[in-house]
């Protein structure tokens, strides 16, 4: 690629790439600081909560004369969503791949280590060695490579059996644990790529349906082909790998215990509190991200199915053809020097239209009049009513999990019936459901039997329920109850 080709390519990216546009935006520091704070503990935030948080921070910046202008929080968020840096779905706000890349770049400016060369070289050497084994077509060559690896492992086992324990130098401990964090921080970005590819596939397929003359069978076949393309993409394979890890109980628990072991070592002192917190919540983060991708994918498939069945692509094609005819007619009028201000005498049967140019032409459904004569205004109350309080959740699942963990540490493994015997239920079915949610969250062992339990409601009523038999133990709980997906 020549210099001029590279210059043209980078010029295009400078103008079109969303990540680059975010980094060069005037309010980039405001956006990045807001995103880092908003998504510190979760990957999805209600839109209303995001507005309240941003509005509070904007007022503080203006008080300290660090921000000019009176732009509202809602305007900022809507503009960032329109620019493709944030995404709103079902009144929930999430980051996009462009935002993830920009945040990773900015964090890398501060977290970039100058002594990570040895760690990087070790990772490259291990990857080259594994790839050499996987790519070799010669069985003898593969055996030689595997025997060499086996000999290295055997030497290490012999040293350990002889009482020789090699400890990593402090500098290498720092390099390797920081490298673990750097690699882990890249994982969530892959989910953003999968989500963006799903949306791009949805948009591209709709355009193809509008422009093509194929019948519905061909369209559905094209949809299935696009699904295969998504699964075979880099982001799709990464998502499948994540999902297999999350579905495999043994691998998930092994990975979780290994992370906990690493963070309990002195080497964890080389990480910041935020980095340690991220690694502690890594599995929970991946689980939430995978569920989010599934929701986006299911919604996209359902939307495409409805789009095909409704025949909306045929209507859009007809509208496009009509717009093309209008454009050609307008150009012909201009070429014939016919004034566009001449009254043609044409009238619409219903509704109204205000057109200043072809780009502003939009089809509108006639609005119906809304009768507001019987609507009375009321002043909002600051005190909740008794009826509202009755519908609020009275059982706090996190407190229930904390109490169960303390009980199991004292008495050892118990089933839910055994736990209820020690901690009687007084809030009825709602509290019993909380017990079962805790059991599922810690991946409690499911026995083949069922057990009967007696629970009491808040008003003293007695209920008997038959539930699956879960066996819980204290070692199934994380050190922090907040890590459970309750």
Q: Can you give a write-up of this model?
A:
By secondary structure, this protein is mostly helical. Among the domains are: 3-111, Winged helix-like DNA-binding domain superfamily/Winged helix DNA-binding domain (Arc Repressor Mutant, subunit A); 167-306, no CATH class; 395-483, no CATH class. The chain has 20 helices and 6 strands. The chain has helices at 3-16, 18-23, 28-38, 47-63, 73-82, 97-111, 117-135, 139-161, 170-185, 187-211, 216-232, 234-247, 249-263, 273-280, 282-310, 312-335, 386-391, 397-411, 416-422, 429-441; strands spanning 45-46, 86-89, 92-95, 414-415, 445-456, 462-472. The strands form 2 sheets. A 3-stranded antiparallel sheet has the order 1-3-2. It has a 3-stranded antiparallel sheet with strand order 4-6-5. A hairpin with a 5-residue loop joins strand 5 (445-456) and strand 6 (462-472). Helix 7 crosses helix 8, helix 10 crosses helix 12 and helix 12 packs across helix 15. Residues 361-368 have low confidence and may be disordered.
């Amino acid at each position: 690629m020549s210099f001029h080709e590279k210059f043209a390519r980078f010029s295009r990216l400078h103008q079109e790439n969303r990540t680059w546009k975010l980094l060069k935006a005037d309010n980039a520091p405001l956006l990045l600081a807001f995103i880092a704070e908003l998504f510190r503990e979760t990957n999805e935030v209600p839109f209303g909560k995001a507005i309240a948080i941003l509005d509070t921070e904007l007022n503080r910046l203006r008080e300290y004369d660090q921000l000019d202008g009176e732009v509202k929080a809602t305007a900022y968020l809507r503009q960032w969503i329109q620019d493709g840096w944030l995404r709103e779905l079902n009144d929930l706000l999430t980051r996009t791949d462009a935002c993830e890349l920009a945040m990773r770049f900015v964090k890398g400016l501060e977290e970039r280590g100058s002594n990570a060369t040895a760690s990087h070289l070790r990772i490259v050497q291990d990857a080259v060695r594994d790839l050499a084994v996987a790519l070799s077509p010669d069985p003898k060559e593969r055996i030689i490579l595997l025997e060499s690896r086996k000999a290295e492992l055997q030497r290490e086992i012999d040293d350990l059996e002889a009482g020789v324990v090699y400890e990593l130098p402090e500098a290498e401990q720092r390099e390797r644990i920081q490298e673990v964090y750097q690699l882990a921080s890249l994982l969530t970005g892959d989910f953003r790529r999968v989500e963006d590819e799903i949306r791009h596939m949805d948009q591209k397929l709709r355009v193809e349906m509008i422009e093509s003359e194929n019948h519905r069978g061909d369209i559905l076949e094209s949809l299935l082909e696009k699904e295969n393309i998504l699964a075979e993409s880099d982001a799709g394979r990464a998502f499948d790998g994540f999902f297999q890890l999350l579905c495999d109980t043994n691998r998930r628990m092994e990975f979780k215990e290994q992370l906990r072991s690493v963070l309990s070592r002195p080497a964890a002192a080389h990480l910041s509190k935020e980095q340690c917190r991220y690694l502690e919540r890594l599995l929970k983060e991946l689980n939430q991200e995978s569920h989010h991708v599934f929701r986006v994918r299911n919604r996209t498939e359902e939307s495409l199915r409805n789009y095909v069945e409704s025949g909306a692509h045929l209507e859009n094609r007809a509208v496009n053809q009509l717009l093309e005819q209008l454009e050609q007619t307008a150009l012909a009028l201009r070429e014939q020097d016919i004034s566009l201000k001449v009254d043609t005498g044409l009238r619409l049967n219903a509704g109204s239209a205000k057109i200043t140019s072809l780009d502003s032409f939009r089809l509108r459904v006639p609005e119906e009049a809304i009768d507001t004569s019987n609507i009375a205004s009321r002043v909002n109350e600051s005190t909740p009513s008794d009826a509202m309080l009755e519908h609020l959740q009275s059982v706090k699942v996190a407190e229930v999990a904390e109490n169960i963990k303390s009980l199991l540490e004292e008495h050892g493994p118990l089933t839910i019936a055994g736990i209820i015997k020690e901690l009687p239920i007084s809030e009825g079915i709602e509290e019993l459901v909380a017990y079962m949610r805790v059991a599922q969250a810690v991946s409690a062992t499911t026995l083949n039997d069922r057990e009967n339990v007696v629970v009491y409601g808040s008003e003293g009523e007695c209920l008997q329920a038959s539930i699956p038999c879960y066996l819980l133990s204290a070692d199934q709980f994380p050190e922090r109850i907040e890590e459970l997906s309750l």
